[in-house]
Write the structure tokens for this entry.
Amino acid sequence: MQKVLRKRILRDLKENLFRYLALSALIIFVMYLVVSIVGAADTIIIGSKKQARKNQLEDGQFGVFVPLTDTETEKLEKKGVKLEKQFYLDFGMEDHSTLRVYQNREEIDLIALEEGKLAQAEDEIVLEKRYCEEKDLHVGDSITLADATYKIVGIGSTPDYDAPLKQTSDTNADSSIFGTAFVTADTYDMLRKSGKSEKTEEYVYAYRLTGNLTNAQLKEELKKLEFTAEDVKDTYFREYWDQTMGKKDDLENGINDLVDGANELRDGLSELRDYSDDLNDGADEIFDAYLDEANKALKAYGIQEVTADNFETVLNNYVNQSNNPGARMVARGARMQLQELKSYVDGTKEYTDGVGEAADGSEELADGVRELKDHTDDIIDDIFDVDVSNMTYFLVAGDNPRVLGAAGDQEINKIGGLIAGVILMVLFTYVISVFVVHGIEQESSVIGALYALGVTAGDLMLHYITLPVVVSAVSSVIGGLIGFSKWGIGLQMQDCFGYFSLQVPAFEYTPYLIVYTFVMPALTAAIVNCLVIRKKLSRPVLSMLRKEQKASRIRDLNLGNMGFIARFRIRQMLREMRSAFAVIFGMFVSMLIVMMGLDIYVMCQNVNIENKADTKFSYMYTYKYPTEEVPEGGEEAFGKTLKKERLGYNLDVTLLGIHDDNPYFDAKVEDGKNKIIISTAVAQKYNVSEGDVFVLNDEETDTKYAFDIVGIAQYSSSLYIFMDIDSMRELFNESSDYYNIVFSDKALSIPSGRLYATTTKEDVEEASGIFIKMMRPMIYMLLVCSVIIFCVVMYLMMKVMIDRSSFNISLIKIFGYRTKEIGKLYLRGNFYLVAAGALLCIPLAKVCMDAIYPMLVANVGSSMNLTFGWELYAGIYVAVILLYLFINQLLVGRLKKMVPAEVLKNRE
Amino acid sequence: MYLEVRDLKKSYGENGSYVQVLKGINTEVEKGQMCVIQGTSGSGKSTLLNCIGGLDTAESGSIVVDGTEIVGMKQDMLSEYRRDQLGFIFQFYNLVPNLTVKENIQVCEYLTEHPLDINDLMQTLGLTEHQNKFPSQLSGGQQQRCAIARALIKNPKLLLCDEPTGALDSKTSRDILILLEEINAKYGTTMLIVTHNNSIKNMVHKVLIIKDGLIHKSYENEVRVPARELEDL
């Protein structure tokens, strides 16, 4: 029987060729889009990972102040890590771009050449491919670098610059201003010696773990490696060291000197005290000796013997009362001598007592100084609590935005594509089911007759799902094949290759996507149609034979005293609820796609406008080695990069310490180590507001910081949060005059060797515009896609509505209704449906997309202002109405073609 | 007895709209008989036919066809019963619009392991020259002949005809009745024909007249008038 019924399928297809072609085109288009987007994502994700493996992608990298010694390298390698020096020099080019020069790699992050060869001679250079594309450079061309000319012998890419970001903190890559280059070791030495690099050489090591050592363990090992400041060749480093860590030595030396002095003093006085008794005894002996001599002389004049205690009284009596002038003279002389000696003895006593006290004091002093040293050591440890190890930074590959950046970016496309595919599959399957249901309802009496003759529901089910399944399957295969081709995956990847630096990978045909493409649409069509058809075919045979309409409360709605035209239209809409729902569903899906396109557009546009408006500085200098004094004309700031996770992506958030009168940011910061003002970019990205607690993570120290949000400041360029600079210095144990960023409205004369980076307003403006440039093809594609889906679904469903009413339309033609009047009855209702549906779908789609969109750009660390003005909403609404009117015109033509004979054909 | 109906009752609706259509039908038809069921609109004749055909379910009573009780049968069993035993002819043909005459017949040819020869059947029904035409290219009579062929191809033992000439003109009606008569003679098919037409009762073996849900009159024609001689069709 199926053999016979199959003949009917072909005839059905022929009879409704346009309908099925439109439907098929929609499925082909949808599957093409989904497969090309997801296939491109898979190709890039798998391809870039394969390339990364092949080219020995690093497990991470770290920077050092001074190159590791051979012993240190050996020690580390023995622990289970392979290291490769990847020192680099940045050179400013004539066109103001920066070329970062490395020497050829041998073991890690190998250069994947797309054309040419590696640099082998002194005048040869290999350039990164995106830079070459932007500069229109080719193998055989020459470039000038540090006043020397180099011949480009190769063009390629390296896995550590998959996203060619100049700084890892940059939000976007711009290959027109930055690229990498690779030369021989000799040429690199020559370039280093030329002294013409923008800044001093960066000592970076890439590593691959080869044993049981983990990233964290390696980091700990590296922290232990110390260095001698004197070994650092960078003069700015040395100067900075002297200003900062050098002062620690001064302080330590000073307090040590003080301790030593106090100890010496204590020891000296102690020794002096030890001689005090001798001194006192000596004085007493002198006094006693003279007293003996004096008594001998006094005795000669009959003067009684005197003692140390009474000599003054006795001798005074003789001097005043004796009649003997000789005795008086001797007594006077002895009294004077003894008085002087007595004073001497008392003086000596006082002196030695003083020495004793001083010795006691010096001991206390020494103890005090020792305490002072202990406290001072603690204070030094607190103040100079900085890593004194040789390591300047440590970055594992997983946290490095340059590594596998394309793969990360494409993950979002992949998920978005797959979800969109499922939604669109449900849409077109639903559209097909409307056709099928329409067909079953039209043939209800025939089906009833076949049932009566013993044909089973299973036979008919198989028959009725065959066409939708075949159309879905064939269309999805066609769409899938185009999607998998160079016109699909190949084209979709172009955007990615226009941004990321990747080798063109071989297309990946992942099993899940093959099943998704070639099985899912047919399976979805089979399942959805089975469910719908089963319900329709399970009606009683007699009901089908009699073409009975199922009673419905909604259809039988009491419309009161409503006028005929309005009543008719409402009844028609209620009767065609299934098709009307498909129109609204299709409109909603189209609007979702429109909103995705517009969200991309407005986000890029807002980023562009707001970044320009919010960037009030002309120059931002990020210091590596700041000077003691802030350069004249500059505004100091203290920047620290912390981390905050959002939707699975661990993004950099810059905590910026500024003064409350900083002219470059509208952030009136308050004193307080936990008070922050967040930028609008942070508020939008993390969905936080004033009063919330914002927790940031310092991965270097494994410390979490919880801040109270006390305000929101307009700033969209980057994920910034602001706090009072003094509070920030205190929080991070920096000196009261510390800074590492200087903003300025004019160029300052700062040696490039002191700087990590210089960001100009022009850089920010140019970078802001890159998003729109990059996303424009995607925006156009989404808008075209939505228009096609909207038109096809609306046309097909409205046509079904009219076809289902063909008998009635023919009948009222017999009554004498004109085409225009029929249009009013049958099409005007659709206008109200579309007009009202659009009023609902446009804002609803916007709300839904605004909720979904942040997940699609979870890896982008910038603001997400998705708001747009009422003009755009009005524009979309007008576009919907215009498209409806266009489709309406096509359908009016169909109304004209309907003839009263239809009634006669279907008179039963 | 090929068909036996005992105390068959059937009603529709509830409360105010309750109507008992069949109030206890008792009848029987012998194998190979042609039987007309006649009655006014709403008398229950089509309901009786539908119950016998397993298209409608009886509330109570019994219908035994060729020894098998069909009252209380489940839907899938009823489907098998229709497939094995029955042919249906309707007033409005109900042909598959985009299948040709031959294909419409073939749809039911596959339902049985021993179908009649399709070419013979088309020859008998005068459809050979129209076999590749679609229903829309046929007259009402030709469409009904196609519907008859579709019903007969699986060589049913019982042919149920619901107003088979209701939508046809007099001449075409006669042609169809002649055809049914010939089929009955040729294949020995038992036939139940529901009709308003008073003349048809003269050509069949047995007549059942239903009134208000009960067999009002039941008789067998002692002399049958051949279809070609029927008047006032």
About this structure: Residues 325-383 of chain A form the longest helix (59 residues). The mean pLDDT of chain A is 86. Residues 247-383 of chain A form one domain. Chain A has five domains: 1-27+404-550, 60-241, 247-383, 552-615+760-908, 619-746.
